[in-house]
Design brief:
single chain; 173 residues; mainly alpha; Hypothetical protein af1432; 2 strands; globular
């Protein structure tokens, strides 16, 4: 073990300095995303990255649904860093790109976010802004964006893990 390694729920180890060294099983991804609150925890109620990811997967065209579901999979080990802070952390951004690339190879996904997935991600972000915060137009990322026609349910971590896995296996079938 090195000082850049963490143990995952499955018992596997993940090394931030070498993200390609271990394949992340989908159960570890689901666990990490379901236990990670969006917006640095500054939303009420608890709202997970797993639910966010599932919502994106439902509003993109079916051929992009798996990419939508997995678009934030790196956050299963990296956590959800608010975008304004992320812009100040170039080393974090480099590591995030390496983890995303490793996951893209492992799960047969493109190494980039297709424009329709980006658009859906922003539509869900606008929905989150409207349903979880005091709505205003000060968020740079959602300027001019329309909200998606979905309701945030605020899944518990256990529910988020199960529902993320259900969606994954539905799409992988």
């Amino acid at each position: 073990m090195s000082e850049t390694t963490i143990q995952l729920r499955s018992g596997a180890y993940f090394d931030f300095a070498n993200p390609s060294a271990v394949e992340l099983c989908i159960e570890d991804i689901a666990q990490g995303l379901a236990s990670t609150c969006r917006f640095g925890g500054h939303c009420w109620p608890f709202y997970s990255v797993a639910e966010h990811s599932a919502l994106v997967s439902y509003i993109v065209p079916p051929y992009l649904a798996m990419i939508g579901l997995m678009h934030d999979a790196a956050e299963a080990v990296l956590g959800d860093i608010p975008k304004p802070l992320k812009r100040l952390l170039p080393d974090y951004c480099r590591i995030e790109k390496e983890v995303e690339a490793a996951l893209a190879r492992q799960y047969g996904l493109p190494g980039f976010k297709p424009p329709l997935v980006k658009k859906a991600d922003i539509a869900i972000l606008r929905t989150e802004q409207m349903q979880l915060f005091v709505p205003d137009d000060k968020w740079i990322e959602t300027k001019g964006a329309e909200a998606a026609n979905v309701n945030i349910e605020a899944w518990t971590p256990d529910e988020g893990r199960e529902r993320f896995l259900e969606r994954y296996y539905e799409l992988a079938a």
